[in-house]
Each structure stands twice: as C-alpha cells, then as structure tokens.
C-alpha cells in the first residue's frame, strides 16, 4: 500500500511552525515526513531556512508514528563523515524510521563554503564517493580516502543496528539511470506523466527494478482556483526552471530576478494547482499507477493547516484504498 507523507519546507516556515505542522500531519493520518535541507531559501519572500538536522531530532521525538526522510547533498557544505554520524545517531535513537536521501546539490546552498562549484559530472563522482564513505563508516570500518573528498582515519563508534537506506535524488532520466546501479531507492519530483515515466523507466533500467521510489508532489490547494494559483505563484515561481539553471544560481536574490518573468499560468506544468480535491486525487492515483511507494505532498502555498486537515479528511482515506 502506498504511503502518504507531508513535506516540511524549511525555506518557507520557521522550524517551530514546522514542528506543529508535522504533529498535525501525524494526527491527520500522514505516515511520513520529508524534510528539506537548505542554507538559503529560494526567495526573499520565503524568508526562512532552519537547520534540518537539529529539527529532525525534535520532530522525530514529537511524532512517534511518523517515518522521516531528508534530502541532503554531502561533499561540500557537509563532509560525508559528519552526515554518516548524524544519520547514524537518528537511526539509533529512532530505529527503522529514518532514510537518508542524497543528491549532487545546488549552488544556492553549497557555494557558501567558498570552495569551487563543480560541474555536474564531477558532482556526481563526488556524491558516489560520499555514499561509499558513509556506507563504510556505518559498517564499522576505519576509513581513509583521498579523492574529491578526503577522509583520514575516521571510525564511527555509535552505529544503528539497522542501517538506513540511502535513496538517490534525480530530476533527469540520465541521473535516474545512474542511480539505479548503486542507490537503495529513488526520489524525484512531480511533473507531467510522460516526463515522470521517463525517469521511472530509466531508474528501473539502470538497476532500480524492485527498489522503493519516492515522489515529492508539488501542489497548491486552496478554497478557490484563483487563490490557489496566486499563492503558488507568490511562493514557488522561482522553482520551475530547468535543472541546469536551478543548480547554478547562487543567491535568493538571483532566483528572485529570474522569477520576475514567470507568469502564474506557467506554473501549471510544475505545480498541481487546483481547488478541486477530486482532481488532486486523480493526479495522485496516476502516480500510484507508475509504481511509486511513497508520495510526499508539498502544498507550496502557506495555507498548511487547511491543507493538512482537508487532505487528511478527504484525500488520504481514498488513497489508502489503492
């Protein structure tokens, strides 16, 4: 049976507000939560960016029935040994409730270290190095590694009995196919069915057949269509560009500059905007048909309480029957 999760968007809300949101989501029937992990928001209008790893410990304690995932980019802002330690600690305290999802990152968050921002090919190489290091540390090995990241005689002493899965993040079919050979699962974002199917097929072709797949669903729900569209445009218009742009811009101000040219109707291919709950249900049913095991719902506007309550009452029970 497909699991339905709530996306905790640190770029949009204070950590204290997100803590209350995941508690509401748990009470409403959501079974998962996905945490973003940013240093900067996507825009000045969003205006937040709490530290995900501090928040995760509090959230997992406060919501004992929810499982958690976090999207992380080890290799530049985070040394992989630190991520190995952080994830191992959460997995030891909260067994079988935490998955690590990893990607090659975006300059928006990673450039702050002052290190060179690598091309996509080299970022992928670095990511695989990081995953190998994390897995070796979780296995109790003493790790020394010299490559795009360096480790010197590191050993992790606090390790969970069950290692968390490492799920790879992909936007393009090319990356998804590569992930299929080494990741424990796939996480991607919603888009038109034909484009989403291409990513799924590529992941399976690359070796991902039978592995879990997570879909982060970007939607905007409100009481009427006009407000759902307007509020999505206000919060999420900076997030609809091709990946080659999204990964290279460095500041919220740069994202705001390019977002000025986006008209509200241009969001429709990237965000599921509708005041009609039946329409949202039909979209989500198509995702289930593609084989996704987990759907993480991200209501990109700021009306979180309304979204959680309405979807918990009228959408989740129907999806639970799938």
> How many DSSP-defined strands?
11
Strand content: 15-25%
Strand order of the largest sheet: 1-2-3-4-7-8-9-11
The biggest beta sheet is recorded as:
8 strands, parallel, barrel
Number of helices: 13
What low-confidence regions span 5 or more consecutive residues with pLDDT below 50? none
- Write down the secondary-structure element order: EHEHEHEHHEEEHEHEHHHEHEHH
Instruction: Sum up the overall morphology in one term.
Output: globular
How much helicity do the residues have? Answer: 40-55%
Arithmetic mean of pLDDT: 97
The structural class is alpha/beta
Distance between the amino and carboxyl termini? 7 Å
Q: Kindly provide the radius of gyration, computed on alpha-carbon positions and rounded to a whole number of angstroms.
A: 19 Å
Attribute tags:
322 residues; alpha/beta; eight-stranded parallel beta barrel; two-stranded antiparallel sheet; 11 strands; 17% strand; globular
Provide structural commentary.
The protein has an eight-stranded parallel barrel with strand order 1-2-3-4-7-8-9-11, surrounded by eight helices. The protein has a two-stranded antiparallel sheet with strand order 5-6. It has 13 helices and eleven strands. The protein has 322 residues and is α/β, with parallel strands linked by helices.
List the helices and strands and how they pair.
Elements: E1 3-8, H1 15-28, E2 32-35, H2 52-62, E3 67-72, H3 80-93, E4 98-102, H4 107-110, H5 120-138, E5 143-146, E6 150-154, E7 166-169, H6 173-180, E8 185-189, H7 193-208, E9 213-220, H8 225-236, H9 243-246, H10 252-259, E10 272-273, H11 277-289, E11 294-299, H12 304-314, H13 316-319
Parallel strand pairs: 1-2, 1-11, 2-3, 3-4, 4-7, 7-8, 8-9, 9-10, 9-11
Antiparallel strand pairs: 5-6
Helix pairs in contact: 1-2, 1-12, 3-5, 6-7
